[in-house]
Amino acid sequence: MSGALPIRLGRSTQCAEIVMRSPKEYVCLLRLHSEVPEQELEWGLSHFVGKIYQTPPVRSSVARRPRMRTVYEVEIIEKTGKEVLMRIATSGGTYIRKICHDLGVLLGVGAHMQELRRTRSGIITEKETFPLIDVYWSTWLWRNENDESELRRIVRPLEDLLAPLPRVEILDTAVDAICHGASLAAPGIAKIDANIKKGDLVGVFTLKGECVSIGTALKSTEEILNEGGMAVKTERVIMERGTYPSVWRRAKRQTKNN
Fold it and tell me: 223: number of CA atoms within 13 Å, CB side?
């Protein structure tokens, strides 16, 4: 496979799950083992749009048990004989080669994936990617010429990766407590996206837009605003401790002194 592959550096490696969950888009070259009319091919592909169950291939990095996946769209770009070029938009974790195999079984002719190119991973499109040689030379310029301009063009902020997540912005006074692993309580929230549901994965940000953590919503937006209490359980801390003042520690010391 070739195409868009987001590479995470430093603390952004903690966001691997976000990248894996994010929607993907591919251009796939499918080879049918016998010719099939295009109308029949379209009929077969229509069965793989929407919610589908997939058992991972024998050669895969996960346990071979059925999993539900979503195929958002399948489009035939070109068909020449037994070769079919198509675009597929899916949820994360979908095996395109398994779709190709299962399509061949459904059509009764057999099929396999010949080539695959990922054209989008989350919000990162193929047009926004860079070849490894560009990464190499931008790093060389930074290390040897103290010129970081090219590296800044290639390396994007972690916050870009988390843009699809529902967003919660917090007060500066709440930041360091979250950095120490505390869950987020409603009084520490400055702004929250509408329509957050209980159990949603959310991004917690400062008022400047810096990512503090990733967490699980303990209540819906409406419940958080109306009931207060604990709002977000911290799952992954992104920001380093001490980046913002430790107001909570100061308050704790004052309480002890009193």
Answer: 13
Helix or strand (DSSP H, E) at 34: none
Single pTM value for the model: 0.76
Q: For residue 30, with 0-12 CB atoms within 10 Å meaning exposed, 13-18 middle and 19 or more buried, which class applies?
A: buried
Q: Nearest Cα to 221, choosing from 164, 169, 162? A: 169
pLDDT higher than 80, residue 16: no
Domain locations along the chain: 24-121, 159-252
Q: Strands 211-217 and 230-237, how do they pair?
A: antiparallel
Q: Looking at residues 42-61, what average pLDDT do you find?
A: 83
Pick the CATH number of 24-121 from 3.90.950.10, 3.30.70.3190, 3.20.20.70, 3.90.1640.10: 3.30.70.3190
For the structural domain made of 159-252, what CATH number should be given?
Answer: 2.30.130.10
